[in-house]
Structure formats: structure tokens, C-alpha cells
Design a protein that fits this description.
One of its GO terms (cellular component) is plasma membrane. There is one protein chain. With 330 residues, the chain is an alpha+beta fold. Among the domains are: 156-194; 206-328, OmpA-like domain (60s Ribosomal Protein L30, Chain: A). The protein has eleven helices and seven strands. It has helices at 8-18, 21-24, 26-52, 56-67, 80-89, 101-110, 176-195, 233-241, 243-247, 272-290, 314-320, and strands spanning 145-147, 171-173, 206-209, 213-219, 253-258, 297-301, 322-328. Strands 3-4-7-5-6 form a five-stranded mixed sheet. Strand 3 and strand 4 (213-219) form a beta hairpin.
């Protein structure tokens, strides 16, 4: 038998079915699905439009960016004390790649850590000094040292110069003034040697200093045969050896002939005056031929007036027979 649908109990049972808890949240799930599909649809539309017309999205944002440009502010100058105070309170700039203390404290606060208190700047901090180059000690100069009991009268050839960095204990330093005096004396002696007369060492010639200058003495047997004034070959060579000494100076050159006291009486040389003069002339002629200026030369015969030894002995007479060449040094 069919029941009446308009009856009350049937209506009440239907309402109870539609007000169940599971059916009350079903509409929200459908709403989220629809919104997700719409967002995905808009994203696909924007991507497709950008691919079809590149730059349209940037162009559409340009007017908006122009509208968002900040309006320039009107700067009103502050009084000088306030401006100084504001500049003093500004946060000092940090070096590139470093965080400011305020930013670091804010980050620590967000992370839930205690803020970091910035350390105060060091006052009167000394700048780092550049390392100075190491200065090496000056080298020690050599010093003159001598034995403590040095005998100045001994010749220097008896000593030897030794260069050492460990001197023995029995030496003493020589005063600088003494060294300077010694050098001055050495220079003075060297100058005197240079200015002194040159005394050659010639075989068969006796060299000596005289008031006029230099005296070159040669025995007659080395120059002439007995009782003659003719030079031998060895005699001419000996006279030629005198040229170097004679040409060192510009003074007069006197050639003096000497004889012993024994008289001579020959056809060519009737006396010792004639013999001594002839021998002096013979040597002058050789010197002139060798290149000595004739104005410098003179020949003198002195016979036996200036003997060197006693004429009573053969040795004395042989010593007195001689020729002397006197070089006048001006």
C-alpha cells in the first residue's frame, strides 16, 4: 500500500539525511578545485601571451612604474648645530662585504638570539708602523798596530805587515796623528829624493857630489895609453856611458885633466900642462860629437896642482893621473 508522501514523518527523515556532517564540507572541496583550475588557467594564458608577444607585460607595467616614482623632497637647510648633531648620529658606513653592527643585531633578534652589543671604537689607536729595514753595522776599517816595544831605529825591512782580525795581545794602536806625521815625512823624503842629484853606478867611474853638482872621476889608464892623449876604444865607450848623466841636467860641463908630479918632456907634450889639457880636449870632442851642446862644454888642464894622493908612491901617482867631468847643476 502506498504511503502518502506529504505525510509528516517522511519529510522529517529526508531532512535528517541532508544535514549530515560529511555532506556539510563537500562544497568547500569543490570550491578549492575550481579556484585552482582558474589560477592555472590564468597562468597558462599569461605564458601563452608572453610567448606570442614578448615584452607586452613589461610595457604594461611601465606606466605603473612611472606613477610609482617618488616625488622629490624639498630639502630645508637645518641650523648648523642641528646639522652637526644629525651627522654625528649617522651610522658609519661599513666596508664592502661586511655587515653593519645594527644589521647584525637585527638578524640575531629575528633568530631569537640575544643581540650583539657593538664594541666601542678604540681611541687613540696607533697606526701600524712599517717595519724599518735592518741597518747593518758599519764595517770596521783596518787599524795600524805595532808591537809595544817597537824600535823606531830599526829598518822597516826587518818587519812584516800582517792583516788579521785577531791581533795579538802585545800590540798597541798607532795614533792617527802619528800616522799622518809619518806619511808627511815620507812624502817629504820622497820629494827630497826626487829633487836630489842622480848618482849613477858606472863601472870604472867614481861618482860623488861636489859644491858645483856631480863629479865623475875616471882613472887615466881606463881612457888613454901612457903619456898620450889618444882615447882607446874602451875609453871612448866609457865616455859615451857618461852621456845619460850629463844630459839629465842643463848646466855647464867642465872636463878637467890631472897628472902626477913627474915631469914629461916629449915632442908632442913638452909638459904635464900640455898633456892634461890635451886629454881634457879629447874627451870634450867626444862629448860634442855625441850630442852635448858645445856652449855647455869647457876643457881645463890642471897638471899636478890638485893631487889626491902622495906622489912619492906608485899607487899615489896612479891615483893622481885622472880625468874629472864636473856637471854643474843649476
Amino acid at each position: 500500500m502506498l504511503e502518502d508522501h506529504r505525510s509528516g514523518p517522511r519529510h522529517d527523515s529526508l531532512l535528517k539525511v541532508h544535514h549530515d556532517d560529511d555532506s556539510d564540507n563537500a562544497w568547500m572541496v569543490s570550491y578549492i578545485d575550481v579556484m585552482t583550475l582558474l589560477v592555472a588557467l590564468f597562468v597558462i594564458i599569461i605564458v601563452a601571451a608572453e610567448a606570442a608577444n614578448p615584452g607586452w607585460l613589461v610595457g604594461s607595467r611601465a606606466p605603473a612604474e612611472e606613477e610609482m616614482r617618488p616625488i622629490p623632497r624639498l630639502e630645508v637647510p637645518l641650523p648648523e648645530p642641528l646639522a652637526d648633531l644629525r651627522n654625528a648620529q649617522r651610522v658609519p658606513p661599513t666596508a664592502p662585504g661586511q655587515l653593519s653592527p645594527m644589521a647584525l643585531s637585527a638578524a640575531l633578534g629575528v633568530a631569537g638570539l640575544p643581540p650583539r652589543v657593538p664594541s666601542p671604537p678604540r681611541l687613540l689607536a696607533k697606526p701600524a708602523l712599517e717595519a724599518e729595514p735592518e741597518q747593518l753595522p758599519a764595517p770596521e776599517l783596518p787599524r795600524l798596530m805595532m808591537p809595544s816595544g817597537f824600535d823606531l831605529t830599526r829598518p822597516l825591512a826587518d818587519f812584516m805587515v800582517v792583516l788579521t782580525d785577531r791581533p795579538p795581545s802585545n800590540v798597541v794602536d798607532v795614533d792617527d796623528d802619528a800616522v799622518a806625521s809619518a806619511l808627511a815625512l815620507n812624502q817629504s823624503l820622497a820629494q827630497r829624493v826626487d829633487d836630489s842629484l842622480y848618482l849613477p853606478d858606472l863601472e870604472g867611474v867614481e861618482v860623488s857630489r861636489v859644491s858645483e853638482g856631480i863629479n865623475l872621476r875616471v882613472q887615466d889608464q881606463l881612457l888613454f895609453p901612457s903619456s898620450t892623449a889618444d882615447l882607446t876604444g874602451d875609453g871612448e865607450a866609457l865616455v859615451a856611458s857618461l852621456m845619460e848623466t850629463i844630459q839629465r841636467y842643463d848646466g855647464k860641463v867642465s872636463v878637467e885633466g890631472h897628472s902626477d908630479s913627474r915631469s914629461i918632456n916629449t915632442t908632442e907634450y913638452p909638459s904635464n900642462w900640455a898633456l892634461s889639457s890635451a886629454r881634457a880636449i879629447a874627451i870634450v870632442e867626444v862629448l860634442e860629437d855625441a850630442g852635448v851642446d858645445s856652449d855647455r862644454l869647457r876643457a881645463v888642464g890642471l897638471a899636478a896642482t890638485e893631487p889626491l894622493a902622495d906622489n912619492d908612491t906608485a899607487q899615489g901617482r896612479a891615483r893622481n893621473r885622472r880625468v874629472e867631468v864636473v856637471i854643474h847643476v843649476e
